[in-house]
């Protein structure tokens, strides 16, 4: 079994048994889109080009990889995990303004009615697989009661999902309390691990191995100097839809053909899902955050997605600029909001960072074999380089493995 827990100093990996046919050694090195020379939009990135560029935002992940061969429900093979995104380290006692937006609703994100009506996020945002939503929600509740007993039950945990059942024993519900607690305890700032990690471990997009991706933008001082960070769990798209920096790459990437997909057996070729988390330090209201969340859908569209009928394209956004104490006797809050005339740069930065986060999830994905020998192949850099060069967009790491 491999269980990796991302921490401040890196990823602690305990190996207790071997794995068959995972990632070939020659393919160990993967690159983010920008490292390949794929530059999206006009705004510069933050220091880490990650959601953690928004000060105070933390990310923790637990990755579970165990077993190989034929599916045995409850045993494996297991290719899954959980990702935790904190708006604040002390989110248990100090909330932030938040909003949600549903581009297409064939998916689940718990706790959203509370956010919609009370405007406040005061739990970490948890990302996992479809079968583990209940278990993760229960685990967060247990964790909160044990470690933050002062936290009142005024809200419900936020848990969002996408389907990883073509690689993972999804009915086995292998994400339990220990995995959730590890993700929460390891949450940190700085670089964020991408690809086959956390909730994205078993995910597939555009018929390539995909998973977790992140990116950020830094607005110039004359546009407020605000930061916008995005984290996605990507599990959507058909191969022919894929667009990379305006290049219709998917139509020419016929090989390799993955035998794992992002669709449930009943979906018959319909598109899968994506969860998008938007963070900013701009002082914006929940209404403005909902408008920002909508723009993340445009970044999704720029990668080729049409948000299919059976797709769960769910977006949650929050701002760290204002603090909402969850206890106290105050009848009024002193908060500040950006005027609507100055919000447009944030819209554009959100679109750009969402597009890049999805491409990072794709380019960082590694070939993975899961249940019943199903394989999701990583996007091949050499083939991609030839296609991008054909359209006048050469890659800078064209010879990368």
* Category from helices, strands and their pairing: alpha+beta
What's the count of strands?
Answer: 16
Low-confidence blocks of residues: 1-27
Radius of gyration: 20 Å
Q: What number is the mean pLDDT?
A: 90
CATH topology: L-amino peptidase D-ALA esterase/amidase
Strand content: 15-25%
Q: What is the share of helical residues?
A: 10-25%
Q: What kind of oligomer do you see?
A: single chain
Instruction: Please give the CATH class.
Output: Alpha Beta
How many helices? 6
Largest sheet: 6 strands, mixed
Q: Which series of helices and strands comes N to C?
A: EEEEEHEEHEHEEEEEHEHEEH
CATH superfamily: L-amino peptidase D-ALA esterase/amidase
Number of domains: 1
CATH architecture: 4-Layer Sandwich
What is the CA-CA span between the terminal residues? 26 Å
Large-scale geometry: globular
Q: What strand order characterises the main sheet?
A: 2-1-3-4-7-8
Please give a structural write-up.
- This protein has 401 residues and is an alpha+beta fold.
- It has a six-stranded mixed β-sheet, covered by helices on one side. A six-stranded mixed β-sheet has the order 6-5-14-13-12-11.
- α2 packs across α3 (177-185) and α4 (286-302) crosses α5.
- It contains six helices and 16 strands.
Sum this structure up briefly.
By secondary structure, this protein is α+β, with helices and mostly antiparallel strands. The chain has helices at 112-118, 133-147, 177-185, 286-302, 344-363, 381-390, and strands spanning 2-7, 10-15, 58-66, 78-86, 94-105, 120-121, 125-129, 158-162, 204-205, 208-209, 212-218, 227-235, 273-280, 312-325, 368-369, 375-376.
């Amino acid at each position: 079994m491999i269980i990796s827990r991302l921490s401040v100093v890196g990823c602690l990996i305990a190996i207790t048994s071997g794995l068959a046919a995972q990632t070939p050694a020659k393919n160990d090195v993967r690159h983010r889109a920008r490292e390949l020379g794929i530059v999206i939009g006009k705004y510069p990135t933050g220091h880490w080009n990650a959601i953690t560029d928004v000060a105070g935002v933390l990310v923790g992940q637990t990755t579970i990889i165990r077993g190989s061969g034929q599916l045995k429900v409850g045993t494996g093979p297991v290719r899954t995990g959980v990702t935790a995104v904190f708006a604040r380290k002390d989110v248990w006692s100090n909330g932030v303004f938040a909003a949600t937006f549903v581009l297409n609703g064939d998916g689940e994100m718990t706790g959203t009615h509370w956010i919609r009506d009370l405007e406040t996020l005061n739990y970490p945002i948890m990302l996992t697989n479809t079968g583990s939503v209940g278990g993760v929600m229960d685990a967060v509740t247990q964790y909160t009661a044990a470690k933050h007993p002062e936290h009142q039950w005024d809200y419900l945990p936020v848990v969002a999902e996408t389907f990883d059942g073509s690689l993972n024993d999804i009915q086995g519900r292998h994400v339990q309390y220990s995995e959730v607690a590890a993700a929460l305890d390891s949450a940190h700032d700085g670089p964020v691990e991408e690809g086959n990690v956390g909730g994205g471990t078993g995910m597939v997009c555009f018929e390539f191995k995909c998973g977790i991706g992140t990116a950020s933008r830094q607005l110039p001082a004359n546009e407020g100097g605000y930061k916008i960070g995005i984290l996605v769990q990507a599990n959507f798209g058909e191969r022919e839809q894929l667009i990379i920096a305006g290049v219709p790459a998917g139509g020419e990437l016929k090989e390799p053909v993955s035998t794992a997909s992002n669709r449930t057996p009943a979906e018959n070729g319909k598109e899968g899902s994506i969860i998008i988390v938007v963070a900013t330090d701009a002082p914006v209201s929940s209404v403005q955050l909902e408008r920002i969340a909508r723009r993340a859908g445009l970044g999704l569209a720029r990668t080729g997605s049409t948000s299919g009928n059976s797709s769960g394209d769910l977006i949650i956004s929050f701002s760290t600029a204002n603090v909402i104490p969850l206890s106290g006797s105050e009848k009024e809050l002193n908060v500040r909001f950006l005027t609507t005339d100055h919000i447009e740069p944030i819209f554009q930065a959100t679109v750009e960072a969402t597009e890049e986060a999805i491409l990072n999830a794709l380019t960082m994905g590694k070939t993975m074999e899961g249940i019943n020998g199903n394989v999701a192949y990583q996007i091949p850099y050499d083939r991609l380089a030839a296609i991008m060069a054909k359209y006048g967009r050469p890659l800078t790491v064209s010879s990368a493995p």
